[in-house]
Amino acid sequence: GTNDLVLSHMWDIYSLEFYRDSNCERNQVDTSTGIPISSRFDSSQSPAWGAQLAFDDVGNPYLSLWGGADQDGSGEFWLGMEFSSMETIRCVRYIELPGHGSTKVAVQNVVQNVEGVSNTWRDVKVMGDLVPNREWKIFELD
């Protein structure tokens, strides 16, 4: 997602979840076998705030968080999951740290290039005018 809070240079996510249903209520995708991926994160903290921390909540989304850090000033952050097989995602939801939240977020998927050239990302849904707070942000993709 794009973080429009330029002064903070951070985007901190407590929890990120994927669902197969279109309203994020049932049929949650199991991320325990996937590989968490992200843009830069704040590695100055101990332990480092890596992408895996957005997926380890086990019933409590506030246990830990991914600490996205904007080290090049671009304001671009991303967080996701790489699955070993194709997954159909119809809804995405997340909770962020209010002081390090985002007012605009894009949900993207990757279009894999079979010729061996790098993959292409495309926007599936973009939402703006978001209020950074500790409430679930829900992106219905259908």
**Secondary structure: number of strands:** 8
Low-confidence stretches: 1-7
Tell me about the biggest sheet? 4 strands, antiparallel
- SS-derived structural category: mainly beta
Distance between the termini: 19 Å
Name the helix and strand elements from N-terminus to C-terminus, one letter apiece.
Answer: EEEEEEEE
Roughly how many Å is the radius of gyration? 15 Å
Give a quick rundown of the structure.
With 142 residues, the protein is an all-beta fold.
Structure description:
0% of the residues lie in helices and 33% in strands. The protein starts with 9 loop residues before the first strand and ends with a strand. The strands form 3 sheets. A 4-stranded antiparallel beta sheet has the order 3-1-5-8, with no helix packed on it. It has a two-stranded antiparallel ribbon with strand order 2-4. It is mainly β and 142 residues long. The relative contact order is 0.28. The protein has strands spanning 10-19, 35-38, 66-69, 79-82, 91-96, 105-111, 120-127, 137-140. A hairpin with an 8-residue loop joins strand 6 (105-111) and strand 7. The chain has no helices and 8 strands. The model is unreliable at 1-7 (pLDDT under 50). It is globular, with a radius of gyration of 15 Å.
